[in-house]
Amino acid sequence: NIERITMYTVSPIITYENGIVLPDCMYKVNNIHKENIRVPGPLQHLSPNCNNVSQQVNLILKKQGVDMHKLEQHQLEILKKLADLKLEMLSLKENLLKECSINSGSSTLSTIQDLTPIVIFASPCQIPYSLIAIQNLWQKKNIGLEIKSYVHSSILILPTQVQEFIQQITRPIFNTQYTLKVTLIWKDVSFGSELVIGPTMLSSIKGEVNILRYLNCIAPGAIETASEHEMNVIFDVCFKLSRAKTQKDIQYCLRFLNAKLGKNTWICNTEHLSLVDIAVSSTLKQLQNTNDVTQNMTKWLQRCTEVVTY
């Protein structure tokens, strides 16, 4: 037996004595699911015996199929016009970038005449062959690199290779619109080449690859370059190779450079010889022992020599 529990009575909180009056301003909708009822308006096409909602939806879609097809065609036409407009905008952007590059290059080159002559200190043990490449390639772009060579008192005798280099690098430069004057001083420096600017010589750029970076900023676009990331990585490897003391470090750098070259014509797979090729080829020509240079890199070095006439 279940014992019944008596509940206590609670008084109502809200007392609403008035009756609820339903609004009579709303229209009534016929039940479309009933048989034999004609529904006015856009649903008159429904079959009176069509009680399945999914069937009714399919009938509506079939009737509206023609209109949907027209809408789809209109949307496709709009998308096609947008695609054509995008191509026109990209073409316009490319032309503007070319014009900006040309104008920027011209304005940068015009400042070469106003630059203070720079001085480069070089060691006879590390000949900066890249200067020959820069000089020859710049001349094709109507830019002259006029170099005068001097010998510091710390150097007693110049090797034959250095003398041949001086004869080639100090040749007269003619028929160029812009000319950058450089004083090359052979000095006993242990850190490689160093570039100084201005009569006070307070600012300096150490390392041949860093000098190449500076010269490329003076005449941007005169020599083809690789991507900035690849160029910086390879320049750092060249800088490390030029200062390598052990055979292990030299072999590591050469393996890296050989892997970057691969089966390409030029390092970084550029269309023409680039600033990276100049830096690497100059660094390799400075090596005392070239036995670790692979046959693939030897052929590439020969191609570089033919282009820049080292």
Automatic annotation (TrEMBL):
Where does the AIMP2 thioredoxin-like domain lie?
115-205
Superkingdom in the source lineage: Eukaryota
Q: Which GO terms describe its biological process?
A: translation
InterPro entries for the chain: AIMP2 (IPR042360), AIMP2_thioredoxin (IPR041503), Glutathione-S-Trfase_C_sf (IPR036282)
Instruction: Tell me the compartments it is located in.
Output: Cytoplasm, Cytosol; Nucleus
Which Pfam families does the protein's record reference?
A: Thioredoxin_16 (PF18569)
* UniProt-listed SUPFAM superfamilies: GST C-terminal domain-like (SSF47616)
- Record has Metal-binding as a keyword: no
Give the chief site where it resides.
cytoplasm
Q: Which UniProt keywords apply?
A: Cytoplasm, Nucleus, Protein biosynthesis
This entry carries the following GO cellular component terms, namely: aminoacyl-tRNA synthetase multienzyme complex; cytosol; nucleus
This protein's record includes keyword Protein biosynthesis: yes
Annotated protein name in UniProt:
Putative aminoacyl trna synthase complex-interacting multifunctional protein 2 isoform x1
Q: Which organism is it from?
A: Xenopsylla cheopis (Oriental rat flea)
